[in-house]
Design brief:
disordered C terminus; Purple Acid Phosphatase, chain A, domain 2; 13 helices; six-stranded mixed beta sheet; endonuclease; manganese ion binding
Length: about 475
């Protein structure tokens, strides 16, 4: 029998709402998982990616993580992990550093046997590269086998990875897939294999309303009645309380009514989200947020979802704005990378608060895939192509429309993780749209454009350690 804690999406270093207290909460949640592992004497802690929120964690986050991993090592409990999309770098991974320190094992295509179970790993792989995967894993002689992977797998929400393909094309018959990336805990059976997400260990967005936790996974022919061979139990974590207050205002009601509703809740040290609907008088969000913090809340955010009537005449055009945008884009010599950014900004499936994270991820993947930076070169627009056709007597027209690289929009659950994943100013004003949060925009731009951003921003570069 093998008993392991399956966790993931700890997002250490995430300053949600730009709060240092929330930053510490994410490390504390990971430490709580390790505390349970030590107290319960499990055989291993299995982490399914996104240990860190950012590929350039600050020194305090690194040192805090190392301290927690040392406690696990002192208890003789191995830490097995894969690399997630948030922490992935173009060179060596932070997980490699922890492995060199003797504090972790990075899972891959060779089996790592704990008890009577062989563990394999599959790091996050961009959608555009998955067709090249052969799912070739080395053989093992253990009683059970589990694949630890980071991605958005079917049949769960925001899926862009075919689970059945992974299982049927793999050289190893897996008893379970222990996944990360989707922040919502869930379990299903695919091709006679248990597939499960533990969810994130802290709420990375206001959309993650359910309590946080992790999985206890037992590999034992008798654990789940004899035939299933795998038993998955959900365990809860005691994390920062989130309070969600819904206020539907009637005509004549306003800020005083909102305050009455807020007073009905215990706000002590909580993150408070107030949503206003209905009719009623105008409400100043800042005033309500100040009231909530005066009542004991750590952080308060107000979203007023009511329509506001604008005074005065409004010039309305019934032309399709999307057509106008497309026409303008056709006149511009946008590069492939620029078109990726443009799609991320305009796609309805990407919440406003996730745009920054989505743009960042797509640019990073382009940098990884395009060693010659060809994706950043301008391409011929439709208008230029037509002119060229006329001038060249029928030469074929290049429409300038680049094919999508396969990266699906809206996978930020992740971080949904995805992670998606993105504390932006937009998240402050409409937090329920968010699924992951991101630090300030300047750091995002630096990551997306600077080939060695860690060398000039005062943060620690992994290459300094390796």
């Amino acid at each position: 029998m093998t008993r392991v804690i399956h966790t993931g999406d700890t997002h250490i270093g995430y300053s949600q709402y730009h709060s240092p207290v929330r930053r510490q909460d994410f490390l504390d949640a990971f430490e709580a998982v390790v505390d349970d592992a030590v107290d319960d004497g499990v055989d291993a802690v299995v982490h399914a990616g996104d240990l860190f929120h950012d590929r350039r964690p600050e020194l305090d986050d690194l040192m805090g993580t190392i301290s927690v991993l040392r406690r696990l090592d002192d208890a003789g409990i191995p830490f097995l992990a894969v690399v997630g999309n948030h922490e992935s770098t173009r060179g060596g991974q932070w997980l490699d550093l922890f492995e060199r320190l003797g504090l972790a094992t990075r899972l891959g295509d060779e089996p790592v046997v704990v008890g009577d179970t062989a563990f394999y790993g599959l790091d996050h792989v961009p959608v555009s590269r998955r067709d090249d995967l052969d799912y070739a894993f080395a053989d093992h002689d253990a009683e059970y086998a589990a694949l630890v992977a980071h991605g958005l797998f079917e049949p769960f929400g925001y899926a862009d990875w075919d689970t059945e393909t992974v299982l049927t094309e793999s050289d190893v018959a897996f008893d379970a897939m222990l996944l990360g990336d989707n922040h919502k805990p869930d379990t299903a059976e695919v091709a006679d294999t248990w597939v499960t997400y533990p969810g994130s260990t802290e709420r990375a967005s206001a959309s993650e309303r359910e309590g946080r936790g992790y999985n206890l996974v037992v590999f034992d022919a008798d654990a789940a009645g004899g035939d299933d061979r795998v038993e998955i139990r959900r365990r809860a974590l005691d994390t920062r309380p989130f309070v969600f207050v819904s206020v539907e205002l009637r005509e004549g009601e306003g800020e005083s009514r909102v305050r009455e509703r807020v007073r009905e809740y215990d706000l002590a040290e909580a993150v408070v989200h107030v949503e206003i609907t209905g009719e009623g008088d105008p409400v100043t969000p800042a005033a309500v947020e100040e009231f909530a913090t005066d009542e004991g809340a750590l952080i308060a955010r107000v979203t007023d979802r009511r329509e506001v009537d604008a005074d005065g005449e409004v010039d309305v055009s019934f032309a399709d704005p999307e057509d106008a945008v497309r026409d303008r884009l056709d006149e511009m010599a946008l590069s492939t990378a620029a078109r990726d950014v443009e799609r991320a900004v305009r796609e309805d499936t990407v919440p406003d608060a996730n745009v920054r994270e989505t743009v960042k991820r797509r640019i990073e993947e382009r940098l990884d895939e395009e060693a010659d930076l060809g994706a950043f070169e301008p391409v011929e627009s439709d208008a230029e192509a037509v002119e060229g056709e006329e001038a060249d007597d029928g030469e074929e027209v290049n429409d300038g429309e680049e094919a999508d690289d396969g990266e699906e929009a809206g996978t930020e659950e992740a971080d949904t993780d995805g992670s998606e994943s993105d504390e932006s100013d937009a998240a402050d004003t409409d937090p329920d749209e968010s699924t992951t949060d991101e630090p300030d925009a300047e750091s995002d731009r630096a990551e997306a454009t600077d080939p060695d951003p860690a060398s000039n921003d005062g943060q620690v570069s992994m290459e300094d350690y390796l």
